[in-house]
Amino acid sequence: MNVDIAAFKKQLENSGTKGLVIELDETLASSIYHMAGELAKLYGNPLNLSVEELCERMTEHDVPFWKLEVIREWGLKALESEEITEAYPIIALPQPMS
User: Fold this and answer.
1) C-alpha distance from residue 55 to each of 18, 19, 39, 52, 60 (Å)
2) Domain count, the chain
3) By residue range, what is the domain housing residue 3?
4) What is the pTM of this model?
5) Would you say residue 87 lies in a domain?
6) Most buried of 33, 62, 79, 83, CB within 10 angstroms?
7) Do the domain assignments include residue 7?
8) Is the pLDDT higher at 33 or at 40?
């Protein structure tokens, strides 16, 4: 399910819901897919691989057309970037606890 993050945040704010969300292993957001797409835009995709293929290769550390150290550095910055994390497509919305 794709959800507009701004609308979701506004819904939480309007309902008075407060808390902390922790994303673990693609349970709430498609972070790896989003990152693969961003990396392809930034560093190229000369084999014209799909995002799914890029993700599979990233997991296997088999993306020879990307410089590993550059990608690792970008990945660490991306994990701390509010702009990037807010762009992750949400997989499912958690139900507020009563």
Assistant:
1) 33, 30, 11, 5, 9
2) 1
3) 1-11+36-98
4) 0.65
5) yes
6) 33
7) yes
8) 40
